């Protein structure tokens, strides 16, 4: 997974047109102020451990949100961050999983997957306002390896 | 080089704070409307052929700008697009080279390199409004190889 985190005055989007892999949704417009925007590309290697990549992504986003004292989080699918994307099915599962976990503690707005979207963004510009992350799933523990080591 | 091209209603920036590699400049604020914003990360492999990577980047930006019928171009350094960056010296040389070439035909605004910057962006959201590119420098022709082949 590739992630770009932007501490923003606001993020506003409007879905304009479907691509072939558009999710079915009625949430076609949204806006959040004083937010952390998480642009996310789910990658091929994340398919091996969906639960693991969701957990690590949530952990990373929470860590930054807490440091910035932000209560509002935008999850924004962003395929352009990677040239090795997962299947659309996995991407949507991961994005929804991150949304579900973060909603336990934050106000979360998730922009729809697979739509061409207009957006307006205002990045604050302080030293921690733009961060990028490469997140890899933990290896799932194998019984055999545990016995051998 | 990694490039993210966004067809925008506007891009506005304000440099807030220097990093250790900040270029010396008085152009600390800027705004352009109806523009193509080129977010650019210059990469290690581009160091082998600075002239070549400038030419290919300019060619790519011009192609998209012409298709979109855009006369205004923003060059915006964006290290977060790559995890294999060039030296700051090469990055600045490439960014200035692209600016100089494009200025022959377009209105160009170049955001300063190595500064923490606030920015506001409005992406139009039509199918061609967000494009990403990986650009590699041409191999410089070697006499020996030409003879052998
Ligand atoms: Mg403000």
From TrEMBL, chains A, B:
One of its GO terms (cellular component) is cytoplasm. The keyword Transcription does not apply. Keywords: Aminoacyl-tRNA synthetase, ATP-binding, Cytoplasm, Ligase, Metal-binding, Nucleotide-binding, Protein biosynthesis, RNA-binding, tRNA-binding, Zinc. GO terms for molecular function: aminoacyl-tRNA deacylase activity; ATP binding; threonine-tRNA ligase activity; tRNA binding; zinc ion binding. It comes from the Archaea. One of its GO terms (biological process) is threonyl-tRNA aminoacylation. It is found in: Cytoplasm. Its main location: cytoplasm. The keyword rRNA processing does not apply. Coiled coil: none annotated. Homodimer. Belongs to the class-II aminoacyl-tRNA synthetase family. Archaea-specific ThrRS editing domain subfamily. This is Threonine--tRNA ligase. It comes from Methanocaldococcus infernus (strain DSM 11812 / JCM 15783 / ME). The lineage of its organism: Archaea, Methanobacteriati, Methanobacteriota, Methanomada group, Methanococci. The chain holds residues 1 to 149 of 610 of the full protein.
């Amino acid at each position: 997974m590739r992630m770009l985190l932007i501490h923003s005055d606001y993020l506003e989007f409007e879905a304009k047109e479907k691509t072939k892999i558009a999710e079915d949704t009625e949430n076609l417009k949204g806006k959040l102020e004083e937010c952390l925007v998480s642009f996310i590309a789910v990658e091929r290697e994340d398919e091996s451990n969906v639960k693991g990549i969701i957990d690590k992504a949530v952990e990373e986003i929470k860590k930054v949100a807490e440091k910035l004292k932000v209560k509002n989080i935008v999850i924004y699918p962003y395929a352009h961050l990677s040239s090795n994307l997962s299947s659309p099915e996995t991407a949507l599962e991961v994005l929804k999983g991150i949304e579900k976990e973060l909603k336990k503690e934050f106000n979360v707005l998730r922009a729809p997957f697979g739509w061409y979207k207009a957006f307006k963004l205002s990045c604050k510009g302080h030293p921690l306002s733009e961060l990028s992350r490469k997140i890899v799933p933990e290896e799932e523990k194998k019984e055999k390896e545990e016995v051998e080591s």
